From TrEMBL:
Its EC number is 2.5.1.18. The lineage of its organism: Eukaryota, Fungi, Dikarya, Basidiomycota, Agaricomycotina. PANTHER family: GLUTATHIONE S-TRANSFERASE RHO (PTHR43900:SF3). Keywords: Transferase. The keyword Transferase applies. Residues 88-216 form the GST C-terminal domain. Pfam families: GST_C, GST_N. This is glutathione transferase. GO terms for molecular function: glutathione binding; glutathione transferase activity. GO terms for biological process: glutathione metabolic process. It comes from Mycena belliarum.
């Protein structure tokens, strides 16, 4: 079987979300770098695979799939023994609850903050907008208050075992720290959870950017 190909960018948060899942599942992959600065993601060859002109997408032995969280769910479903998506109905519902919280409560503010603090300078050479930073920090601070309550009851967001819901947070949580912000370590339960995730081998592996991984 051909090695899985991940079409993305080494410093893309969405590419890292997929790569982190691949590493947690110990699935070898080849990174096919999409040259964003050259507009490759808007060219016909890329649009034929990803019609929205975004990254990443995967080619799993001819099976093409885009949308980061859909990719991660597909990979976890192919390797159910790892338990990243619980199967028991109630456990699965709690997982989906946690995954929804990431998508609707964490990601909107964290992604805007990550853009202002790090990615804006990296990709377009612009400085952060202080007002945007202040506004998004206030929103995220409130959301993490709820996270602290949740994580005061269980080790991870969906119980006492790690799931995709936890891994989904990694790229932007790390990006905020890279941008010099300590918001992920201000609340005790969030800080404990975040530090444990940040130390996982699947996370440490890509500290310098996503790269092809032939073996683990």
């Amino acid at each position: 079987m051909a090695i899985l190909k991940l079409h993305g960018h080494p410093f893309s948060t969405c590419t890292r979300r997929v790569a982190t899942t691949l590493a947690e599942l110990q699935i070898p992959f080849e990174l096919i770098e999409v040259q964003l600065a050259k507009g490759e993601h808007k060219q016909p060859a890329h649009l034929a695979k990803q019609p929205f002109g975004q990254i990443p997408y995967i080619d799993d032995d001819g099976f093409i799939l885009y949308e980061t969280r859909a990719i991660c769910r597909y990979l976890a479903a192919k390797h159910p023994a790892k338990g990243l998506i619980p199967k028991e109905p109630k456990a699965n519902a709690i997982f989906e609850q946690a995954a929804s919280a990431e998508l609707t409560n964490f990601d909107p503010a964290a992604s805007k903050l990550g853009w202002e603090l790090v990615l804006k300078k990296m990709f377009i050479g612009a400085d952060p907008d202080p007002k945007a930073v202040e506004d998004q920090l206030a929103i995220l601070e409130g959301k993490l208050g709820a996270y602290d309550v949740i994580l005061g009851k269980t080790k991870y967001l969906a119980g006492d075992s790690i799931t995709l819901a936890d891994l989904f947070h990694i790229p932007y949580a790390l990006l905020l720290a890279q941008g010099g912000n300590d918001i992920m370590t201000r609340k005790p339960n969030v800080a404990r959870w975040y530090k444990e995730l940040a130390a996982r081998p699947c996370v440490v592996r890509f500290e310098g950017g996503v790269k092809s991984t032939a073996s683990y």
